[in-house]
Amino acid sequence: MSDWRSRALRPAKRALRRSQDRYPQSPPELSMDPRAAEEGSEAPPAEESVVTSAIYRDGHRVDGPPNLAETCQRLRDHPGTMAWIGLYRPTEGQLLTVAEEFGLHELAVEDAIVAHQRPKLERYGDTLFVVLRAARYLDEAEEVDFGEVHVFVGANFVLTVRHGQAPDLTAVRRRMENDPDLLRRGPEAVLYAVLDSVVDGYAPVVGGLQNDIDEIETEVFRGDPRVSRRIYELSREVIEFQRATRPLLDILQGLSAGFEKYGTNEELRRYLGDVADHATTASERVNEFRQILADILALNATLVSQAQNEEVKNLTVASYTQNEEIKKISAWAAILFAPTLIGTVYGMNFVHMPELQWVFGYPFALFLMLVVCSTLFVIFKRRDWL
């Protein structure tokens, strides 16, 4: 088994940069809807959506026919050959033309036209139809970009329909052509190579999501108010990633179940087992991420609640302190009001007012003020107003 089929999950950014540097990227993705042609306009020829078309014999590339009709004719004229045709975002008319040439089942073709399918494995007679969800991690945007690839596997042909930039099937083709021993095992070997490419593409995504989760944990404890939104957005990406990885395990189990019935080569069985191990690892990590994000969200809610309680506590303490000061001010105001009231009464200059001619009137007024103020002071002091 070659080295590229036994890679373990590697850190995200290093793996993604190496992949981008080594293999050129596909044309930019415009939309997931493959039916780009306007109604009433003439459908473009199917060859416009063909990225690469090649015929292989005994694990080696022997020809690259210019059109689909000639490719089919070569397959009929030369038994023992295999065709591998790659389509990128074909229109409905283009895909129907290809389906007619290779006799593809209409239900499988309909799924390939509509796209946005759940990963699945279906068998229509001698043709195997597989839907895979690929993913790649975008470093600059710190988000996951999802693609979709449909694989038709026949007795002597492989047809790949890609609706996104991932996976890089050009790199898969190069790797297979550099490994004739594997390529000569037929269309099933190509299918497993595509599966391996999709699963290996999950490694940078797993690493990137791990980095994002680590950053979020730091932001949560720093009290960043924007972290809740980021947790929500990352949770949606993890859920979408889980939708891509979880059904893949069923696909691999379905292929394993048909080993004996369809006489799958022993080497391909080991190859599939290696892919299944990587897929299981990725699926388990995604499940962990979802649980971790749920815990982080709950922790963030707790921390926010604690911060709010602390603010309420501080406001309560401030309010209590303010009330204490108001009580002191009110108590002293009451004490000072008493002599003012007495002085006001004794300050009225009426002729017939009692005690105006009394010798002890002034000392009595002062004594009365002192008694009233002292009494009020004692009362307020006992009530802790002073």
From TrEMBL:
SUPFAM superfamilies: CorA soluble domain-like (SSF143865), Magnesium transport protein CorA, transmembrane region (SSF144083)
Membrane topology of the entry: Multi-pass membrane protein
Keyword Transcription among record annotations: no
InterPro entries in UniProt: CorA_cytoplasmic_dom (IPR045861), CorA_TM1_TM2 (IPR045863), MgTranspt_CorA/ZnTranspt_ZntB (IPR002523)
Extent of Basic residues compositional bias: 7-17
CDD domains: MtCorA-like (cd12830)
Highest taxon listed in the record's lineage: Bacteria
Coiled coil residues, start to end: none
Annotated TM spans: 329-348, 360-380
Disordered: annotated segments: 1-49
Assigned keywords, A-Z: Cell membrane, Membrane, Transmembrane, Transmembrane helix, Transport
Protein family according to the UniProt entry: Belongs to the CorA metal ion transporter (MIT) (TC 1.A.35) family.
Protein name per UniProt: Magnesium transporter CorA
Source organism (scientific name): Plantactinospora mayteni
